[in-house]
Design brief:
The complex is a heterotrimer of chains A (583), B (439) and C (158). Chain B is of the alpha/beta class. In chain B, 41% of the residues lie in helices and 12% in strands. Chain B has a five-stranded mixed sheet with strand order 8-7-11-9-10, covered by helices on one side. A four-stranded mixed sheet of chain C has the order 2-1-3-4, with helices on one face. Classes of the chains: A alpha+beta (583), B alpha/beta (439), C alpha+beta (158).
């Protein structure tokens, strides 16, 4: 450790920090554009110029006469940094004047307004007036940069973060600088747009409104957006993200810096893959469809229609129809409990519960605990684990081949669910083992299973026709899901649950890191966030609070011992894994 | 008493480029002398001679060589800067066209001293005749065991490759050259690391100028003491002095533009009057560029400035630079001259860092507007501000192009301000041709 | 538009052993391409990228830095004549020379004459200040030029 003096503040710094990082930790902002901790240092924007010197052993300070970029200067013992001297302030104002010389100053139509480093720095460090008295360089906007990316060329400050990203992180090298001097621009090679799977990150990296996301363009002023911390559900990498919403509508997802999780970026599949939250095919309310109750004296397969025998469940159906304007859930959950009881009463081995790897830990825990409290012999199994292709490693080489293992900077994983490890840990505790979905589906043929409680939560269709066919034959099929599908159509009870944006809980990624998903929006009124749904199903007292459930989990399941402490914004290491295999 | 040329000795002689002529005149004796010494001793000799790089920066050549790490495993590269593009400069062109072997011998000696494994001669594209002369000379060297494996049985091996540029001034900057050699846009690198530690292809690298290489040959042939006997020793201990012969280029408004070899230290006045036939058309000099336009201007009362490494600095210029003297007569408007230099730097700025990219273009536009009769006095303050805020000296840019862009502005406005003010207040428009699409 | 000939590709490959990295052959390869076709076509850029194991964007990035290389929409004429506009030449009539040459040939700087015989370019200091005003014809310097001499060269008469 070493002491560094930043203005009038003394701090200890670690071995590999530059002055921008050291200053940040001291609470001092050194403005910068081109530097980014994941990219090579170019020190070309010259925004971070500071005065540096050395504090000698006798206490005197000798300063270097010329300014130096803070981003390329390591924080060494006894370094003295001035970030607010007259010289530095003059340089900052001058750099901003230079950057704004040919800038169109079109904040009123620029997406970046409100989160723009030209605005922010000009306000803090710049001059109110420009001395420019010449025509500005005119540049043409470029919509061809990428499928998702548009370039408003005249706003660019040539920080080259975008170019370095495509060369150093994605490896796909689509972006380039063209021309020389003050007429330089960012561009692509004609016919080779920036469409790699990490392309959206250049929009985040761009400190100004030059590179914009076509998906978000002109949709919402950022100062109206409210942001929540969340975790991408797309794969087991579990990128930390921000979810931006206004009035319960999602507008965009952005990566959230987390060196414990994925680092600074996210892939486009996750970034743009949230539209299903607003899909017309959402299950907007619970449905109690045809009910099949297996009585004690009838074999599996007899069905009694709802308007037949006066069972408790059919009464519930009638009650539901009558109470259309009142919260249907108490009735539905009651019907669910009864339906489960009916099957289990004729044999616990006739009922099975499938927990999807899309569930949050707290949800899996509550469901598993509740089911086992009804009867220990009810089988718990793991839902389908979607795997698409192979892990996608970056940066690619010129042929598109992945890098060597020690050179990987980003991975899009083949396992397209966020919490297999978490759900498996719950299953191992309550079931003693993890029964895979293929196994349980097989048992539909060979065993007496007559009732199932299936949790879905997948954005896409997740069961093939043959499995659906088998499920159709069950007397009791309870489906907890958020999308309408042939499965929910055939369900005897469809429990309309929520997407990740509409509920709160914890997921565990490929490396055993548990992160909390905060709720960002309220779903439609008759959709139940799964945590609350299962809390009420299991007739717990009070209200669902993820933290309380975690405390309970920490007490009861050793694997979740770390849940006893605070999760924190960056998550907590629950267990360590060999890549991809559970603890 | 006129100086007997050493570097330009064979200029004008028939077949001066051929190996045969060169050898007959004593060529490659220096190389043999070098091979008889250990490489560190060659470095010492060059250091002792006081040779300072002739490319414009004037850094001690021998000292630069000592920055290479000792006991390096793997390649060391020697890059020869043949990108000479500083306006007013043409000494390297003459050396390569007329006497390539003198330069190439110096390259082999320098390679031996620095233990370089490969040399790249980066040659500006426009020097086509130089390219062909070097190509031929290199072929002759390979055919005569002066290049390639085990040169003259010394155990030292060196390959030289010619690498042609594509018309960009910034490729003359040390790390700009390296980036261009590596196949990228010639954006100079931030330092540290310096090329001696991490240069071309991430290996230890030395970049040396053409005329410097010719000097190395002569130092090994005639001895460091000979080199020290020419020039001006330094007055103050911090100044490494100005030693050896120098090729001075003279152009502009003189009767005899050309190249002349003299010991370092001649005054601008003597150079113009005694060696360039004096100012043309019976006129007087209004301003003189002392060492390529990056160095700024000497005014008419500063013509007794000694053109050594220390002299121009004393008169407020950036330095000796390439010792390329351009004479501007008293019928020429300094506004036109300054516009010309600002436009040059705006065109050549690599564009990487903000102050240079924007500052050079802005100053060219301001001068253009002044020339169009629409300038204001405030513009002169803006120009001064720009010139004070861009450069490696204040620390605001990555390389020295910005300092070169700033110095003519600084000198012009300091030494010729009344002329600029009068031009502006009179509303005059420039008569000279403004090329459409000039930027 | 077409790419490189096999001869050109081989010339490029022959240079690979001269450098420790393939990317270093970029500039020589671009010269080879332009010499052959009087411009560097898009296809040629792709082919160079293929040989040097880079993306076409990286080649294009380097290419566009040097105003030297022309694209397929602006191929060079038979002769490329650069007129210097830096200080030493300006002082000896370089700007007037350029103005007159452009006027008589009916081109602006950067354009090719209608008969395709010459492309007139602006140059920065050509390194022939001793013979100002000077020009570069392809890669040969010509010193002490007059407008008549330049126009003759451009029209293929000299």
């Amino acid at each position: 450790m070493s002491t560094v003096f930043i203005n009038d503040i003394e701090i200890e710094v670690g071995p590999k920090e530059n002055l921008v990082q050291a200053a940040e930790r001291a609470g001092v902002e050194i403005p910068h554009y081109c530097w980014h901790h994941d990219l090579s240092v170019v020190a070309s924007c010259r925004m971070c110029l500071v005065e540096v010197g050395e504090k000698k052993p006798d206490g005197t300070i000798s300063m270097i006469s010329k300014l130096v970029p803070a981003c390329q200067t390591p924080a060494k013992p006894n370094t003295v940094v001035l970030t607010n001297s007259e010289k530095v302030k003059k340089a900052q104002a001058q750099t901003l004047e230079f950057l704004l010389l040919n800038h169109p100053l079109d904040c009123s139509i620029c997406d970046q307004a409100g989160e723009c480093y030209l605005q922010d720095y000009t306000y803090k460090f710049g001059n109110a007036q420009s001395r420019l008295n010449e025509p500005k360089v005119q540049r043409v906007d470029k919509y061809h940069i990428g499928e998702q990316i548009a370039l408003f060329t005249d706003r660019c400050v040539m920080c080259t973060r975008c170019v370095r990203f495509t060369r150093e992180i994605s490896g796909t090298s689509e972006l380039l600088v063209t021309n020389r001097g003050s007429v330089e621009e960012i561009d692509i090679f004609p016919g080779e747009p920036c469409n790699n799977k990490l392309a959206g990150n250049v929009v985040d990296l761009c400190p100004v409104g030059a590179l914009c996301s076509k998906d978000f363009l002109y949709k919402k002023r950022v100062w109206w957006l409210k942001t929540q911390n969340s975790v991408c559900q797309g794969c087991s990498t579990g990128c930390s993200i921000h979810v931006d919403q206004e009035e319960n509508r999602l507008y965009r997802l952005r990566p959230r810096e987390n060196e414990l999780a994925q680092g600074s970026f996210m892939c486009d599949d996750g970034r743009f893959g949230w539209k299903y939250v607003e899909s017309e095919s959402r299950l907007f309310g619970p449905r109690v469809g045809k009910l099949q109750v297996a009585s004690q004296h009838h074999a599996v397969g007899n069905s009694n229609h709802a308007n037949g025998n006066g069972t408790a469940v059919s009464h519930a159906q009638v009650a539901l129809n009558e109470l259309a304007t009142v919260d249907p859930w108490p009735t539905v959950l009651n019907a669910t409990r009864q339906a489960i009881k009916s099957v289990v009463d004729s044999g616990a081995d006739r009922f099975a519960v499938v927990l999807s790897p899309m569930m949050f830990c707290e949800e899996a825990f509550m469901l598993a605990k509740y089911i086992k409290s009804i009867n220990k012999k009810i089988t718990l199994a793991l839902g389908p684990v979607p795997v698409v292709g192979e892990d996608d490693l970056y940066p690619k080489d010129y042929k598109g081949e992945p890098p060597a293992a020690d050179k990987v900077k980003f991975t899009i994983r083949a396992e397209k669910c966020p919490n297999r490890l978490g759900v498996e840990a719950v299953l191992k505790h309550f079931q003693g083992e993890v029964i895979g979905f293929e196994t349980i589906a097989e048992r539909l043929n060979t065993t007496k299973i007559d009732g199932m409680y299936l949790v879905g939560g997948y954005p896409d269709a997740w069961l093939d026709a043959s499995v659906l066919g088998k499920l159709d034959g069950l007397s009791t099929l309870i489906v907890q899901d958020f999308m309408n599908s042939p499965l929910t159509d055939m369900a005897t009870i469809a429990l309309a649950s929520a997407t990740f944006a509409e509920r709160q809980g914890t997921v565990v990624n490929h490396s055993g890191l548990a992160q909390e998903v905060q709720q960002s929006i309220r779903g439609s009124t008759d959709v139940r966030p799964d945590g609350r749904l299962l809390f009420e199903l299991s007739q717990r007292q009070g209200m669902y609070k993820a933290a309380s459930i975690r405390t309970e989990m920490a007490k009861e399941i050793p694997a979740f011992g770390a849940f006893a402490g605070e999760i924190g914004e960056l998550g907590i290491q629950l267990f360590t894994t060999v890549e991809g295999k559970s603890a | 008493m006129s100086f007997e040329p050493v570097l330009l000795r064979r200029w004008g002689k028939p077949n001066s480029q051929s190996l045969e002529t060169y050898r007959a005149d004593g060529g490659y004796a220096a190389l043999k002398k070098a091979f008889a010494m250990e490489p560190p001793k060659v470095v010492e000799a060059v250091q002792k001679s006081g040779l300072r790089g002739r490319g414009g920066a004037g850094f001690s050549t021998g000292l630069k060589w000592t920055f290479l790490p000792k006991d390096v495993q793997g390649p060391i590269y020697l890059c020869i800067n043949g990108d000479e593009s500083e306006p007013g400069t043409f000494n390297n062109r003459v050396l390569l066209e007329e006497d390539p072997h003198q330069v190439l011998e110096g390259i082999v000696i320098s390679g031996y001293a620095t233990k370089s494994t490969t040399a790249y001669l980066y040659l500006r594209y426009e020097y086509g005749d130089c390219y062909r002369a070097c190509e031929k000379a290199i072929q002759e060297m390979y055919a005569n065991n002066l290049l390639g494996k085990n040169i003259l049985g010394s155990g030292y091996s060196l390959d030289i490759y010619l690498h042609r540029g594509a018309c960009a001034y910034i490729c003359g900057e040390e790390t700009g050259l390296i980036e261009s050699l590596e196949g990228k846009r010639a954006w100079p690198r931030i330092k540290p690391p310096f090329p001696a530690i991490e240069g071309a292809f991430r290996r230890p690298t030395v970049v040396n100028n053409i005329e410097t290489m010719a000097c190395v040959t002569q130092i090994l042939d005639r001895g460091p003491e000979w080199f020290q006997s020419l020039g001006i020793p330094s007055e103050n201990p911090k100044d490494p002095g100005s030693y050896g012969p120098k090729l001075y280029c003279i152009s502009g408004h003189v009767n005899k533009p050309g190249l002349v070899e003299l010991p370092l230290g001649i005054t601008a006045r003597e150079l113009i009057d005694k060696h360039a036939g004096g100012v043309w058309k019976g006129r007087k000099a209004k301003a003189v560029v002392p060492g390529g336009i990056s160095m700024g201007f000497l005014s008419a009362d500063e013509l007794d400035t000694k053109l050594d490494f220390a002299g121009p600095g004393k008169a407020g210029c950036l330095g000796l630079g390439t010792a390329a003297v351009i004479v501007i007569d008293d019928q020429t408007s300094m506004v036109d001259v300054l516009y010309n230099t600002c436009r040059f730097f705006a065109h050549e700025s690599c564009g990487q860092c903000t102050p240079c990219r924007e500052g050079t273009a802005w100053s060219a536009k301001i001068l253009s507007r002044i020339r169009a009769g629409q300038g204001t006095l405030k513009d002169l303050d803006t120009l001064t501000d720009i010139s004070n805020s861009i450069g490696i000296m204040p620390g605001t840019t990555i390389c020295g192009l910005a300092d070169g862009a700033a110095w003519p502005i600084k000198n012009a406005l300091k030494k010729f301000r009344p002329e600029f003010e009068e031009y502006i207040t009179s509303g005059r428009r420039s008569q000279s041709f403004e090329v459409a699409g000039a930027h | 538009m077409s790419g490189l000939t096999e001869v050109a590709k081989q010339k490029i490959r022959d240079l690979l052993p001269c450098y420790p990295s393939k990317q270093a052959v970029t500039l020589p390869a671009l010269h080879i391409a332009q010499e052959e076709a009087r411009c560097v076509t898009r296809e040629a850029v792709r082919e160079i990228a293929e040989i040097l194991e880079l993306s076409p964007a990286q080649i294009h990035d380097t290419l566009s830095f040097y105003g030297f290389f022309k694209d397929e929409k602006h191929p060079l004429g038979d002769n490329r004549i650069w007129v210097c506009r830096s200080l030493a030449c300006m002082l000896r009539g370089g700007d007037e020379l350029l103005a007159e040459v452009c006027d008589r040939l009916h081109v602006s700087p950067g354009q090719t004459t209608k008969d395709g015989k010459a492309t007139i370019e602006l140059a920065e200091c050509l390194g022939a200040c001793d013979g100002a005003p000077c020009i570069l014809v392809n890669d040969k310097l010509q010193l002490r030029m007059t407008a008549d001499a330049v126009v003759s060269l451009a029209e293929g008469r000299a």
